[in-house]
Amino acid sequence: MSEPRRTFWHLAEQVHWDAALRSGHYDQSTLGATLQQVGFIHCSYPEQLPGVVKLVYSRVSAPLVVLEIDPERLAAAAIEVRDEPGDPHLGGPSADNPAPELFPHVYGALPVSAVARTRPAAVERGWLDLAPWADTPYPQE
Question: What are phi and psi of 15, to 5 degrees?
Fold first, then answer.
């Protein structure tokens, strides 16, 4: 029997998360790109988020929110999650990078019900500042 997948995170712009709360699903892949444009939603494990912020979000001044995603809820909704290199189009291991870091990628729109909790966030001088977790009052499907 395989180990259960652990929860993972997605850093969202608050404006996009607010739109998801109204529509019931989140479809932003990463900063400035939609699920439709990229084909999946970029996510990270908690220990990977500081690197993502440094690489992608360091100059963002808009309010952000960390979404904690429950992989069991995604599986129940038949939404695939794959652990892949940050950019899967670059391929897997190579001579230059024999063990690329793997990130969870969500292949489908994220139902708000798959988000276990949220955490307001902001980037201050290139660093992610996190507020306390808020329980997410979304009904389980």
Answer: -60, -40
